[in-house]
What does this fold into?
Amino acid sequence: MPARTRTPLLTGGCQCGAVRYALYAAPERVHLCHCRMCQRATGGPFAALAPVRRADMDWTRGAPSERRSSAHAARGFCAACGTPLSFRHLDGDWIDVTIGSLDDPDAVAPRFNYGVESRVAWLRRIDALPDRETGPGGVTGGGEDA
It folds into this structure.
């Protein structure tokens, strides 16, 4: 069905707005992946991923660049700002969007972890860290707790 006739359930995109997408079904098997490839691809301790069938997702503005991260998978990202947007198996019917690229990342919650053999040990202690709100200029670069 063409994107014009469907109502998106969720929308998302990159930080600069050059690439946007719409999901027409609820993601399934939402998860965090701690494998080393996902850590390196996102630059973080894990990738937060929300899988949907490819037929239930459309790129609505622009299109991501893709990098084959292995012989079996490709990762989509915005070529203009670098935002990681997706992961897909080359021969699969599913695409995983990054939860952080959703307009409402609270709309989907991870249900389990993958790649736990590579989970960074300090992740279990993050709830004990002090909380700080982001200031008007973004994250501060100085101070004793920075």
